[in-house]
Design goal:
With 805 residues, the chain is of the alpha+beta class. The chain is built from 20 helices and 39 strands.
C-alpha cells in the first residue's frame, strides 16, 4: 500500500512532522512503514519561466536561443527541444540547480547539477525541462509531450515554484499492511491511523447527497441469486456522461500512488478505490440487456471475454455479474469486453459490491487473473463501506461535471452486518499488557479509534470496518500500541515458573542427532514430494502398502507428484550424489516425516510419522550400523534387550544381510545392506547400509528414569563357556537362553570369541562367552553358580549346541 503524505494530510489537516518522524511514529503505533520516497528529492532551483523570444542559433541548425522570463529576470537558454514556441510557460532549472535524470527517463542518484555554459559558442544560463528530467513520465503526466519540454497551462504564474505546480513537493510512503487490517488498504484507513498516532483530529471527506431528478429503479434492477458469495450489491446510474480529463489534483494523487490517469470516469473509480478501499466498476447501461443485473454462479465450461480481450473458461464456483441475457463481468476481478465504457457512452451504471473474499481469491487463481480489485476483495471487505464509496463516486461525478446522477440507489443487502460488541475489563487488559494503566487512560484512546464505549454496561461497540477487533486481547493491543510500545516499562514475566527445558519428544530428537553426529554422520534433508518411479527403483512388490501414496492435486511435475511413504529414496539419492562426486566414506542421517494414508482416496488426514534414517557407504559394515542403532536406543533409556529378526523381507535390502529391529516384541525399524540391484538403480557401486527407526515407537518406549543400584558388596564369580554352534543359530538366540536360565544371580555376559576354521566341523562355528554371576545379599557358593550353568547348558543342548572340548 502506497500513499502520498499530502493525501493523508487532506484528512488530518493539523499533521505537522518530518518524513522520518512520520515513518517512525507510524511504525511504532503498528502501521509499519517500509520506507518513503521524496518526489522532489533531486529537484532544486526549478521555476516557471515564459519564453519571450526565440532566435536561431548562429552555428547549429537544431538549436535555438531563447530569452526566458523567470520572474526576477530574463535569462538566455539554448535548447534543442523541438516543441518550443514564444509565449509558452515551461519549467526552467536555473544555474546551480538540479534535475532528477536525463531526457530518456533514466534517473541519476543524487540528480544532475546544471551549470551555466556555452553551447556551440552561445552562452546558456539554465535548462528547460521535460517531464522525464523532473523524475516522472508521460504515464503519470499524460498531458506532457512524449518528446520535448513540459508546457504549463497559461494560468500558471511566471516565477512560481515549478515543482510545487507539478505537485512534486510530496513524499510517498510504502506500508506493510497485514491481511487482518483490511481498513488500512485505503487512504482513509491510513489517515485514521495517522490521526490516532499523532493525536490529531481525523476529518473524513463530506459526502453530499447527489441525484435530484429521476428514479434509479426506472433504469436498472438487481437480483442476487447467490447471496452467500455476494453480501451486498449497490448500483447507481449516471446520465448525460461527458468523458474528458480529470482535474490536475486528482491526477497528481493517483500518480503518486502509481496509478496512471486515463479519463475522468476511470480516474474517479480508481480514486474512490484508493480512498475508501472499495473497488468499483462502471458499465455502459446501453449494453445491459433488459436493464437488469443478475448476480449468479457461472456454469461449468461457460466462456467469457474479459476487458483485456482474453477468453476465460469458467466453472460453477465462480461468481458472475450478468444482465438479462449474458455475463457482463467476472465478479470482483474484471468486467467484460461486451459492457466496457467507450467514448460514446451516454448513460453509465456504477457498481459497488461486497463479494466473498475466499471465493474471489480462488476464482482469481483458477482463471489466472489477479487485479487491484481482486487483491482488495480477497481480504474480505466491509459491506457497510459500499454505499459510502458509491455515493462518494457520484459526488465526484457531479463536482467534476462528468454527468448527471440519477436520484436513488439500488441496494441489495439481505443481512446487514452489525457492529460487534466486546465486554471491557480493565483488569484483564493490564494482565495482558503486563503493566498497569488506569481505566480512564484506556478509555481515552477509544474515540480516536472510533470505538464507542458505554460506561454503564462497560461494553465497547466496534465499527464494522475494524474486522480485526474480536476479543479483549485485540482491545489490549490497541491500547498498548497507542500508549506506545516504546513507553512500556520492562517487567518480569508473571505466572507460574517453567523449567525451560525441551519436551521429551524434542529431547529424544536431539539425542538422535547427537548420537548420529558423534558417530560421524552429517545431517541431510530431502523433499517430502517424490515420484511414483521411486517404488520401482526400490524394487517394491506391486502389492506393497508403501505404493499407496497420496497424490498431490497441483504438483510441480511428475517427479514431485506424491507424498513419500518411505524415507529411503531421499537417503539413497543423497548417498548416490556423494558417491558420483567421488566422496569417500560418506555417512548421512535425516529426521523427516513419511505420510501414510489411512484410506485412499483420503477421508481424513494421513498418519505423519517421523523417521530416523541413517545411511553410509565406505568404512564400516552391517555391524557398524547395528552399533549406531543400539547406541541411540541406549541413550534414550531403552535398556531392555534389543533383538533382530533376519527374516525382515525388505525387497530393497540384501536378502542375507537385513534385519527388523525388535524391542519389547514391537518392530521399531529395520537395518541392512542395500540390495545390489537397488544400488545399481541409484548409480552406486560397492556396499551401502541403511537403518530406519520409526520414531513414534521410540517416543512411547523411551525412559529417562535413572535407578541407582549402589556399589556391589559381594564378590563376583566368572565362568567362561566355549561352544560349537550350528551356523544358522544367531548368537542372539544363545544370549536369550543365558538371560532366561541364569536366574537372578546373572550380572552380565560378554561374547569374546567367534571362530570358523579347519578345527571346527563344517556347518558349525565356535562361540565363546564370559558370564558373570553375583548376588546382592550374599557371597555366592560354587553350587549356586553351577546350578545356573547346568540350566544354561541343558537349554543349549536342546538347540543342538555342544560344549567345545
Amino acid at each position: 500500500m502506497n500513499t502520498p503524505l499530502s493525501w493523508i494530510k487532506a484528512y488530518v489537516p493539523d499533521l505537522e512532522c518530518t518524513d522520518q518522524e512520520y515513518m517512525d511514529a507510524m511504525t511504532l503505533s503498528g502501521t509499519k512503514c517500509e520506507g518513503f520516497e521524496r518526489l522532489d528529492a533531486d529537484l532544486e532551483k526549478i521555476v516557471v519561466g515564459q519564453i519571450e523570444k526565440i532566435e536561431r542559433h548562429p552555428d547549429a541548425d537544431k538549436l535555438v536561443v531563447c530569452q526566458v522570463n523567470v520572474g526576477t529576470e530574463t535569462v538566455q537558454i539554448v535548447t534543442g527541444a523541438p516543441n518550443v514556441a514564444e509565449g509558452q510557460k515551461i519549467p526552467v532549472v536555473l544555474d546551480g540547480g538540479r534535475v532528477a535524470g536525463g531526457h530518456d527517463g533514466s534517473k541519476t542518484p543524487g540528480g544532475i547539477k546544471i551549470k551555466k555554459g556555452k553551447l556551440r559558442g552561445v552562452p546558456s544560463y539554465g535548462m528547460m525541462c521535460s517531464i522525464e528530467e523532473l523524475g516522472s513520465s508521460t504515464d503519470f503526466y499524460p498531458e506532457a509531450p512524449e518528446d520535448g519540454i513540459y508546457i504549463f497551462d497559461d494560468s500558471v504564474e511566471v516565477g512560481a515554484d515549478a515543482v510545487e505546480v507539478l505537485g512534486l513537493h510530496d513524499t510517498v510512503f510504502e506500508y506493510e499492511v497485514t491481511s487482518n487490517r483490511v481498513d488500512c488498504y485505503s487512504v482513509l484507513g491510513i489517515a485514521r491511523e495517522a490521526a490516532a498516532t499523532f493525536k490529531k483530529p481525523f476529518v473524513a471527506p463530506e459526502v453530499k447527497e447527489t441525484g435530484t431528478e429521476g428514479d434509479v429503479n426506472d433504469y436498472i434492477s438487481v437480483e442476487v441469486k447467490d447471496a452467500d458469495l455476494c453480501s451486498r450489491f449497490c448500483a447507481r446510474v449516471v446520465k448525460n456522461v461527458k468523458i474528458g480529463p480529470s482535474p490536475e489534483w486528482m491526477q497528481r494523487r493517483l500518480s503518486a500512488c502509481g496509478i496512471r490517469p486515463i479519463n475522468n470516469l476511470v480516474d474517479i473509480t480508481n480514486y474512490v478505490m484508493e480512498e475508501y478501499g472499495q473497488p468499483m466498476h462502471a458499465y455502459d447501461l446501453s449494453t445491459i440487456a433488459d436493464n437488469k443485473i443478475v448476480v449468479r454462479r457461472a456454469q461449468d465450461g461457460e466462456k467469457f471475454v474479459t476487458l483485456d480481450g482474453q477468453e476465460r473458461t469458467l466453472d460453477s464456483e465462480m461468481l458472475m455479474i450478468c444482465d438479462g441475457e449474458k455475463p457482463v463481468g467476472l465478479a470482483g476481478i474484471m468486467g467484460g469486453e461486451n459492457s466496457m465504457i467507450t467514448d460514446n457512452v451516454e448513460t453509465m451504471l456504477f457498481e459497488a459490491a461486497c463479494f466473498d473474499g475466499t471465493n474471489i481469491r480462488l476464482s482469481s487463481k483458477r482463471v489466472g487473473l489477479r487485479t487491484d480489485a481482486s487483491g482488495k476483495f480477497e481480504k474480505g471487505l466491509d459491506p457497510n463501506n459500499a454505499e459510502a464509496a458509491i455515493n462518494r463516486a457520484c459526488q465526484l461525478i457531479e463536482e467534476l461535471g462528468a454527468g448527471e446522477v440519477v436520484a436513488g440507489i439500488v441496494d441489495v443487502y439481505p443481512e446487514k452486518r452489525e457492529p460487534r460488541t466486546i465486554q471491557f475489563d480493565a483488569d484483564k487488559v493490564n494482565k495482558i499488557i503486563g503493566f498497569n494503566l488506569s481505566e480512564e487512560q484506556m478509555i481515552s484512546y477509544f474515540p480516536a479509534l472510533e470505538l464507542k464505549y458505554d460506561a454503564e454496561t462497560k461494553m465497547i461497540t466496534v465499527p464494522t470496518f475494524r474486522q480485526d477487533l474480536i476479543g479483549m486481547c485485540d482491545i489490549a493491543e490497541e491500547i498498548a500500541r497507542f500508549y506506545g510500545y516504546d513507553n512500556i516499562p520492562t517487567t518480569l514475566p508473571s505466572g507460574e515458573a517453567t523449567t525451560g527445558k525441551l519436551s521429551e519428544k524434542l529431547r529424544i530428537d536431539e539425542i538422535a542427532r547427537s548420537v548420529a553426529l558423534y558417530c560421524g554422520f552429517s545431517q541431510g534433508m530431502s523433499y517430502s514430494f517424490e515420484s511414483p518411479k521411486v517404488f520401482d527403483k526400490l524394487l517394491l512388490p506391486a502389492d506393497s502398502e508403501l505404493r499407496q501414496a497420496i497424490e498431490i492435486s497441483n504438483p510441480l511435475g511428475e517427479d514431485f507428484s506424491v507424498m513419500r511413504t518411505t524415507s529411503l529414496d531421499g537417503m539413497l539419492t543423497s548417498l548416490a550424489t556423494n558417491y558420483n562426486r567421488r566422496n569417500k566414506d560418506v555417512r548421512l542421517f535425516e529426521m523427516g516425516n513419511v505420510y501414510l494414508p489411512k484410506a485412499l482416496p483420503l477421508t481424513e488426514l494421513p498418519d505423519e510419522r517421523m523417521q530416523y534414517t541413517l545411511g553410509f557407504y565406505g568404512d564400516g559394515d552391517f555391524f557398524t550400523m547395528k552399533g549406531v542403532v543400539e547406541e541411540f536406543l541406549d541413550q534414550v533409556g531403552m535398556k531392555k534387550k534389543v533383538s533382530y529378526d533376519g527374516k525382515a523381507g525388505k525387497s530393497f535390502l540384501h536378502p542375507g544381510r537385513q534385519a527388523n529391529i525388535i524391542y519389547e516384541d514391537t518392530v521399531i525399524g529395520f537395518l541392512g545392506e542395500v540390495h545390489p540391484a537397488v544400488s545399481e538403480n541409484y548409480d552406486m557401486k560397492g556396499r551401502a547400509y541403511i537403518a530406519v527407526i520409526d520414531m513414534p515407537y521410540v517416543y512411547e518406549m523411551a525412559d529417562f528414569t535413572i535407578k541407582y543400584d549402589g556399589i556391589a558388596k559381594f564378590p563376583a564369580v566368572t565362568r567362561d563357556i566355549s561352544m560349537v554352534v550350528p551356523k544358522e543359530i544367531p548368537v542372539g538366540q544363545i544370549e536369550e537362553v543365558i538371560e532366561q536360565k541364569a536366574g537372578k544371580i546373572l550380572e552380565s555376559y560378554n561374547l569374546f570369541d567367534i571362530y570358523e576354521g579347519d578345527q571346527i566341523k563344517e556347518g558349525f562355528k565356535s562361540v565363546a562367552y564370559s558370564i558373570v554371576f553375583r548376588a546382592k545379599d550374599r557371597t555366592l557358593e560354587d553350587a549356586d553358580v553351577q546350578a545356573s550353568m547346568n540350566k544354561i547348558l541343558k537349554a543349549l543342548e536342546e538347540l543342538g549346541i555342544e560344549l567345545r572340548g
